[in-house]
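Recall from the previous chapter that SMILES is a line notation for molecules. Here it describes zinc ion.
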Amino acid sequence: MRVTQLSVADYRNYRGAHLSFQPGPNLLLGRNGQGKTNIAEAIGYFATLSSHRVSGDHALIRQGEDAAVVRMRVAHEEREVLLELQINRSGSNRAQINRGASKPRDLPRYFSSILFAPEDLSIVRGDPSLRRRFMDERIVADSPRMMTVMADYDRVVKQRNTLLKSARTSGTKANQLSTLDVWDDRLVELGSEIMDARTRLIHELGPPVAAAYHHIANDDHSPRMTIIRSTETVLAGVALSEAELGEIAVGAPPDISMATDRGGDHPHTMQKFRAALRAIRPKEIERAITLVGPHRDDLFLELNNLPVKGYASHGESWSYALALRLGSADRMRAHSTTGDPVLILDDVFAELDLRRRERLLAAIRSYEQVIVTAAVAEDVPEGFTWNTIYIHGGAVRPDFSDQHSTSERTPDVE
Amino acid sequence: MYEGIIQDLIDEFGRLPGIGPKSAQRITFHIVQSQSADVTRLAELLATVRERVRFCTQCGNVSEQELCSICRDARRDAGLICVVEEPKDVVAIERTRQFRGLYHVLGGAISPIDGVGPDDLNITQLMRRLADTEVREVILATDPNLEGEATATYLTRLLKTLEVPVSRLASGLPVGGDLEFADEITLGRAFEGRLTVS
Ligand SMILES: Nc1ncnc2c1ncn2[C@@H]1O[C@H](COP(=O)(O)OP(=O)(O)O)[C@@H](O)[C@H]1O
Ligand SMILES: [Mg+2]
Ligand SMILES: [Zn+2]
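With both inputs in hand, we obtain:
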């Protein structure tokens, strides 16, 4: 699949702009702070229903305006679909698909993309929350319904934490806590669904990520991914020191989580979740927060049987981060009925050494459409004919328009 | 900021549900500038509503008498009790004309974030009512959202001790929604297809 047209209005630093994309390689070129990432973000939003840089939507609306509008025309073979999104400062967002009113939640059914960004390095090196987000974003892209499950789960955790807190302060423990069981039911139900979805995802993602790593690093470092479930950690009777309760420690013994490597086994997951809740209950009452569940899980990454975090070199870490994205794209491509996902590479080449650049480029070459942003043309590997779009001050500069971009009549996407 | 009494009125309107500062200001100036008798009538109504309207001692619905009009209606089937969150849910269900039993209005749903626990709801009254009268079925019609579901689960467990059959409105109701906004047909179907939960 590919993006053919994009229009934005009152979006980020754009009052209004219109961009035409070509199949194959596209380059958004412009100095820093001009609005390149903003465009990458707008395109990616349709696939994941969220920005890759902020959690709320408000930052996407041009300062001083009430609503941003993003319209995107997507093509797959001969079929075209027009996706429209209005992001509102107050009230919920609205969407249209081929001009028919629709829910934003339905947009990802019509568009898939994989976005690579400099921040991806922190998936590998940063907090567990970033790895959870990496998994959850894939899950929502596969099945938009899961967005509701995740939002509900977060709300149950919040309700439960409030209940635990008020029970602690008011001292009416026994009475207040009679409703804890009720929330536990939902916590286990929703949480197990998320846990199983993550397990299935990682199971499927293992081979393509390993292949992608091999491709980019040109070395076999046996990359491995294992989900560490907090439920398993609790049940394994790992001593619950304060430090470990904060976040599951780096390099937690992998054998705890081996059992979760098979596909999602729902009754089993729920049963263990319940048992873990029972085991940790006194601690939860004491600490007044929910200590077990998918919001405390982690994705454990290894190279050569060593944790990536704390052991892998900068280059190896980058290769792993790229492999997570590229592997995701390859998996999508294998399952897709609507062609390749669109690959979006935001400022990524600037982060990589020459050899990684070239290997990454070789790996993405066969994709139907690639959209790259760069501050200077030198950051982009040679040997490609780019459809170049110049971005300056929240606008497209048509006067610089590249020869390769067709300047014919632009279809009406207003 | 306006002076004295005008700002007081704006503030009061602003405290009402669904009214933001802008609307509060608009309503206030409408009232201040209006010449008609409507405003006087509104003021009178506000005062009498407070005086006259109470809550039905049996079901918790709004009422002008000791018992609400539904509880007083001898044609209604006293063997069926439909449990809802708010009086407005009673109105929504009445519109479907599917249900000929009585109601029990909880006055909200369990939500620790909002400081609402079981003790803040009309649950003791419900238990007493079920112990005192012959009831064939309790239908839980709380909102199809997290808090409504949690409340229904809580009640289901509590009611198990009484051995009264309990059912829950069938899905088909938009999840995450409010009962009062469900259209009549959907709500009517939900009633027909209710599921026995204990
Ligand atoms: N909501 C907004 N309203 C107005 N300007 C914004 C908004 N969000 C971001 N910007 C501006 O957009 C610019 C950053 O654009 P970005 O796409 O990140 O640049 P780059 O070309 O370096 O990728 C900054 O100047 C920032 O102030
Ligand atoms: Mg940028
Ligand atoms: Zn009554």
